[in-house]
Amino acid sequence: MCIIVIFTGMASIQCLNPKAELARHAAALELNVSGAKGLQEVMKSNLGPKGTLKMLVSGSGDIKLTKDGNVLLHEMSIQHPTASMIAKASTAQDDITGDGTTSTVLLIGELLKQAENYVAEGVHPRLIIEGFEWANAKTLQLLNQFKVAAKADRQTLLEVARTSLRTKLHHKLADHMTECIVDAVLAIKTADGPPDLHMVEIMEMMHDSDMDTCLVKGLVLDHGARHPDMPKHVKDAFILTANVSLEYEKTEVNSGLFYKSAGEREKLLAAEREFITRRVHRIIELKKKVCEGNTKGFVLINQKGIDPPSLDLLAAEGIVALRRAKRRNMERLQLACGGEAVNSVDDLTPEVLGYAGLVYEHTLGEEKYTFVEECKEPKSVTLLVKGPNRHTITQIKDAIHDGLRAVLNTINDGALVPGAGAFEIKLDNVFYEGMILLNYKVAAHVALKKSMEEIKGRAKLGAQAYANALLVIPKTLAQNGGFDAQESIVKMVEEREACPEIAVGLDINSGEPAQPTGIWDNVVVKRNSLSSCCVIACNLLLVDEVMRAGMQNLKTPQ
Q1: 260, 280 contact by CB (below 8 A)
Q2: pLDDT tens digit sequence for 272-292
Q3: What is the SS3 assignment for 226?
């Protein structure tokens, strides 16, 4: 709690909570920079396909292995205020675009690290910020020039998904998951608008190996039929999706029923039983109408309950009945199988029925799963994640989230950016005509390009710092691949200068510059990452006082 008291004719006196923690000027900047650099050091080893994993252990002993930046920032307990703010901003980036969390953290940390050197030499942070803002505007402008128009065909989407997944999973599993994810998005894609990723159900089974993860072009329900005599395997099945109560119901208001005799109670129960039975018979009549004279099956999937007498009647007619289906699956069922969901059994017609070529029940331990497959042009599909243990399944599910968003971003943007650090190298060359790296720690960037002359005075230093900071991405990729970062960047810059018309990235297998064929980044991820890192870095540079002064405890200490 901070109170400022001003007396007439005297200098202002600032009174603080005596227990408050206060940092001013250089100390405040050091606090912010150290927090950003500390978080950067934690995250930088995860970047790229050659990045390492982090093991997170909860208080109860649960283990999670991951290299996903979004998961790490959510799961880690961060005490430093600046690092916590950067983490929240970076996870917001993942919520919006689905990727770019680690890159945002690295860029913010590097921008502050570069600015710290100039501030230590007496340059005012406002001048550096002017250079940052100019360089950031130029960067976003160049992003629109550098991006490549892309059609949403299967081959392009496979390359995009593979680029994303290989940074989260080992290559063999990533290549297998790539096809599953792309086929899932293409299955639910419509001509009317972008795909709705909520129509991709992610179901998990702790069973087999991770390579057995597959795409089911239909739906997988996490429960089975509720009667032992019902068929376990049905081909050419009609699907009735219903939200009808087939059991005794409680009154909607808090009320009680009083009887004069036991006979009256029996009459009421018999009347209610007859009411439920009539509903069941209407469903049976529809089944006989569509299945008479053929070998087709009939499946009822009900959102509400079905009591044992009703299950007996349905089982006697060979109907597979599933009760209490989850609400989220009701819409997916209609999109996968066709037909309409009914709220009443009155006037049932064959037009409300969907179709599935195969419906079967799979038992895994004590759990039962119902597979609805071989649907005609399903607009809702299921990614069935399998793995031998919990942390493997969790790791795959986190990667699926990023892969789905990468494919969706490509469809929405209609454009891509060459990956492998190619964009950052191009930007560095736009800001500089040539670059001499004697040592990366004391890098000397010379011969400013004509675009650099737009800024006058010391604000150029901010633009130089911004250009230096962009190199943190290819530098980190080289380091994580086990190569010398300085040598790799010098070779990439020289190759870029020799061939200015092509994109030049880093080959993580050899450490040599290469054209990033089939390696793509999303435009929206790059744009949001560059925008947010500049805003956050500028705000942190303008902080000249940090106070941690909460309300005093009103209780008198004993």
Answers
A1: no
A2: 788 888 888 888 888 888 887
A3: coil
